[in-house]
């Protein structure tokens, strides 16, 4: 499989892209899928949450050891989407009890990405990395709203899946910082991304012990003709969230054309009108999640 990708992505003349793909293939086959400069705070959170007997006090102790992480979690807990009553939450333990362990993990990954984007060794790709993360945050917020509105899917899982839907892109971009010559041929770079990001995302998320439905959603959400059950699932939610973010600001005819050809939109019973109404009614939630996750 890796050999086929190498042949399809680049020709012999493009030595930079070919060498980069060879490195990707070695990492994939060796099972060593680690995002460069990724902070270990997310790993520490995952380890404590893996204990079935952990409680809010134990999680708060780990989170509290990282002031930036504490601030991120409180910001998410006080967002309009997760705290509709608007009563301020100032204590970590209360925040964790309020948003649940799944969203604690989401907060840890958002904070880790914030740290990654500020890594000195990745300064050369800071702008595209920021742009990529901005989209991940928008898709996460949209997925949360879509899950609540149009599917019997956990909004918290949808939020996490949306945040992680670009992790394969993040990995490739971070690795490419060591190969600046790749950016001299945008077409070759994009072919690498197109052919590799889904498989890399699957490998990264499995190594992080994400639930199988989140892994499947991130791997498959770009497959418009994907077969599914009669009921919308997490992959459908992520697919629609990504599409709606792409279509933001588009005219109604364009939105209708895009939704009409999607099995996911059929399973979720979407129309341009229902989408527009939902986006208007949840504008504050979307904005608050975007601000909380993206800082």
How would you explain this protein's 3D organization?
The chain is an all-alpha fold and 295 residues long. It has a domain at 33-118. It has helices at 2-9, 15-30, 41-49, 56-64, 67-77, 92-117, 126-150, 155-164, 167-176, 186-207, 212-220, 234-246, 252-260, 263-268, 272-281, 283-294. The protein is globular and about 55 Å long. The two termini are 38 Å apart.
Task: Describe the largest sheet.
Answer: none
Counting DSSP E segments of at least 2 residues, the number of strands comes to 0
Query: What's the number of helices?
Result: 16
- Roughly what fraction of the amino acids lie in strands? under 5%
Helix content: 55-70%
Q: State the distance separating the first and last CA atoms.
A: 38 Å
Q: Which structural class do you get from the secondary structure elements?
A: mainly alpha
Q: Assign an overall shape.
A: globular
> What is the average of the pLDDT values?
87
Radius of gyration: 19 Å
Pick out the low-confidence regions.
1-13
Counting copies of identical and different chains, the oligomeric state is single chain
């Amino acid at each position: 499989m890796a050999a086929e990708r190498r042949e399809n992505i680049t020709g012999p003349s493009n030595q930079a892209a070919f060498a980069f793909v060879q490195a990707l293939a070695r990492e994939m086959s060796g099972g060593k899928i680690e995002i460069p400069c990724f902070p270990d705070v997310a790993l520490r959170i995952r380890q404590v949450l893996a204990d079935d007997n952990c409680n809010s006090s134990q999680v708060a102790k780990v989170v509290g050891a990282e002031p930036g992480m504490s601030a991120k979690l409180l910001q998410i807990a006080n967002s309009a989407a997760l705290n509709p009553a608007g009563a301020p939450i100032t204590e970590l333990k209360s925040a964790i009890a309020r948003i649940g362990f799944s969203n604690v993990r989401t907060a840890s990954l958002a904070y880790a990405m914030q740290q990654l984007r500020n890594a000195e060794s990745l300064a050369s790709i800071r702008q595209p990395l920021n742009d990529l993360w901005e989209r991940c945050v928008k898709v996460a917020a949209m997925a949360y709203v879509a899950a609540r509105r149009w599917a019997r899917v956990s909004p918290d899982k949808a939020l996490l899946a949306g945040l992680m839907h670009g992790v394969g892109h993040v990995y490739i971009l971070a690795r490419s910082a060591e190969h600046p010559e790749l950016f001299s041929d945008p077409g070759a770079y994009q072919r690498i991304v197109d052919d590799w990001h889904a498989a890399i995302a699957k490998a990264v998320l499995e190594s992080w012990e994400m639930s199988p439905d989140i892994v499947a959603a991130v791997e498959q959400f770009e497959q418009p003709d994907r077969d599914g059950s009669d009921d919308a699932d997490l992959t459908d939610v992520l697919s629609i969230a990504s599409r709606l973010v792409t279509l933001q600001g588009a005219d109604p005819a364009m939105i209708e054309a895009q939704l009409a050809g999607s099995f996911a939109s059929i399973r979720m019973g979407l129309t341009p009108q229902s989408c527009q109404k939902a986006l208007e009614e949840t504008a504050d939630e979307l904005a608050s999640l975007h601000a909380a996750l993206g800082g």
